[in-house]
Design brief:
Number of helices: 2
CATH class: Alpha Beta
Structural class: alpha+beta
Order of helices and strands: HHEEEEEEEEE
CATH superfamily: minor pseudopilin epsh domain
């Protein structure tokens, strides 16, 4: 004769099906609410760090106009951090693609600014050392906007300086 304790040693088929359905519903809801666009945001943050690093290079090196540091766009998907006289560059930031992905694009407005230079005060300057009077706007991955403010060189996410 089977003892009553032997009957309670497992799950019933109904309990197993209920758990499987519950896990399925939770996974569908979690997948639907998972944030999208994380790659684009990560690429924009990497580019923002690169701009700040170029500015840092200019501010921590002995500054003369010929030795300004800047971020140079190389086509639509690569950039380099270089010194204006061309005698120095940063190896980790030479011909670099965002997130090591050659499909992530970088565009700049105004289009004439393919290299954004920084002086020893961290100000964005033109090729002859004159501080820029207007903002420089970058768009990363077609949707993430970054703005470099004139006079301060502050890099802000979005289209306007504070």
């Amino acid at each position: 004769m089977i003892d009553g304790s032997m009957r309670n040693q497992g799950f019933t088929l109904i309990e197993l099906i209920s758990i499987i359905l519950l896990v399925g519903v939770i996974s569908v809801v979690a997948t639907a609410k998972w944030p999208g666009g994380m790659k684009e945001v990560a690429a924009a943050k990497e580019f923002k760090r690169a701009l700040r690093y170029a500015q840092h290079q200019a501010m921590t090196r002995q500054y003369v106009v010929a030795n300004a540091w800047g971020l140079q766009l190389l086509g639509a998907t690569q950039y380099s951090i270089i010194r204006q006289d061309g005698l120095a560059s940063v190896p980790d930031f030479t011909n670099r693609s965002l997130l090591n992905d050659n499909t992530i694009t970088i565009t700049v407005n105004p289009l004439a600014v393919t290299t954004l230079w920084f002086n020893g005060l961290g100000e964005p300057i033109d090729a002859v050392g004159t501080p820029l009077a207007a903002e420089t706007h970058y768009t990363v991955a077609g949707s993430e906007d970054l703005t470099v403010c004139p006079q301060t060189g502050y890099v802000v996410e979005g289209n306007a300086c504070p």
